[in-house]
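Problem statement: downstream parser choked on a complex file, so we are re-checking the raw output for the NAP run. The parser issue turned out to be on our end (a line-ending mismatch), but while we're here, posting the original submission so the record is complete.
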Amino acid sequence: MKPHRIVPAPCAGAGAPSPLSATGRPLKWGVVSTGRIAQKVTGDLALLEDAVLHAVSSRSSDSAAAFAARFGFSTSYGDDGGTAGYQRLMEDPEVDVVYIATPHGQHFEVARAALHAGKHVLCEKSFTINAAEAQELADLAAERGLFLMEAVWTRFLPSVTRAWDLIDAGVLGEIRWIQADLGFTAPQDPTSRLWDPAAGGGALLDLTVYPLTWALGSLGFPDSVSAVGTLNDDGVDVQNVLTLGYDSGAFAQLSSSFVSSCPGQATISGSKGWLRTGGKLNNPSELVITVDQEEPRTERFEQIGAGYAHELREVTRCVQEGLTESPTMPVGDTLRTLRLFDDARSQLGVRYPNDDA
Ligand SMILES: NC(=O)c1ccc[n+]([C@@H]2O[C@H](COP(=O)([O-])OP(=O)(O)OC[C@H]3O[C@@H](n4cnc5c(N)ncnc54)[C@H](OP(=O)(O)O)[C@@H]3O)[C@@H](O)[C@H]2O)c1
């Protein structure tokens, strides 16, 4: 078996065509939410030749209309009487694929509505609050033959795909030790989703998927996990450290924080050398490779848009080819990740309202 568990993204390998170029049948997109990441990802979606910006929904009709006007969507839906804006978007027969960018606490209900309406789904991380919710969505998508993917865009970047190639080629030797962190000092805003238990607030669900990507790509899923962290008065984790153990004797130490300004780097160490990300580990602009105690060598990568085009290209490819999941970000990886996070949360003592739903 190859030493990593993440299948390299076809759209990001050497010689792959631009993710923006036309591939065939256009896809009509519906975007749920007008929040921060919805704006960033939609900016990249608009760059793709095959993307038709069809509909956007929001809790507010005004917000949906302003977003539609800004990005060029044909239609917008806000909450109307007893019907949520996102529900109205699901009832639009023109929408092929839905991108969900609400807080994590709402992902389950919106994705379930999309799948019931026969839409393909790209859903932001954290995919759901827990593995039970994710399993229900996975079963529903499988039953209906619909595409479903968690939006872990980092897996589709050329820099990250190149790292897997180097590891696969044995450049670093046997991988034995990984350190990866992501964190920032989040404003103490009680209205922010970052701190809200109902939204799935906390550093683990918000950030750890990115450091984890480096462990999964280098060593696969671990054989054990131990977690320590600090909770605030609402029981939300403000920072945490996970140690992943592997039967091979390898370890990965992952940390995420809302109270520390962190470098946001991954270091992959093997028996022959190490690789370090330059820029943030969720969107590296560089890989610095040091082997056999020689001088470090740096590879640099150009960014397209805000970095989401490769992920969006993969969704387009999969839907066009009738795939129900992406080999690079399969639903099974999302389920295993959420089981790992459930385990870590029980060690940290973090529970959310969705856990009791
Ligand atoms: N892939 C990435 O790089 C990346 C980066 C940041 C965040 N994310 C993920 O994207 C999701 C959204 O994050 P964000 O930073 O965009 O959050 P945000 O700025 O707070 O926006 C979330 C939006 O969701 C909508 N919403 C629907 N129900 C809501 C509710 N009950 N409470 C609050 N908002 C609600 C709101 O839009 P309307 O007012 O239009 O309804 C709100 O503006 C999170 O799951 C996060 O983890 C991903």
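For whoever reads this later: The two ends are 39 Å apart (CA to CA).
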